[in-house]
Write a structure and sequence with these properties.
The protein has four helices and three strands; from the N terminus they run ααααβββ. It is of the alpha+beta class. The protein has two domains: 1-77, MazG-like (Helix Hairpins), CATH 1.10.287.1080; 81-115, no CATH class. Helix 2 runs antiparallel to helix 3.
């Protein structure tokens, strides 16, 4: 799913509730979900981490919709496969250890291209 598609889905599904709740309450919910993601990152399972990451994304999309922001545009400032600080394309070198069972993230190294 593309970022814009996800944001539009959240808008169609929750626009009325989001409007009634307001920005301040949405920020509070987003902050709570970020805290739950932090806890899951430290002590949770992969499933719990994935669940909480999804909740953070949903609340961020709700906040962006209330503020009239396009998350895809906001994310584009980082550039697709670009290292803005080095202004060079990025190369991803995936190192898949035998113990990896398909969860995210796989172990990888990120290096700036020399070309």
């Amino acid at each position: 799913m593309e970022i814009r598609d996800f944001q539009e889905l959240m808008d169609r599904t929750y626009r009325q509730r989001d409007t009634e709740r307001g920005v301040a309450s949405t920020i509070a919910w987003l902050a709570e979900e970020v805290g739950e993601l932090a806890k899951a990152t430290r002590k949770g399972t992969f499933a719990e981490q994935s669940h909480e990451a999804g909740d953070v994304m949903a609340w961020l999309a709700s906040l962006a919709n209330q503020l009239g922001l396009d998350l895809e545009d906001a994310a584009s400032r980082y550039g697709l496969h670009r290292c803005d600080t080095a202004r060079r394309p990025l190369d991803f070198e995936f190192a898949t250890p035998r113990s990896w069972r398909g969860g995210w993230p796989p172990e990888f190294r990120l290096t700036a291209s020399t070309s």
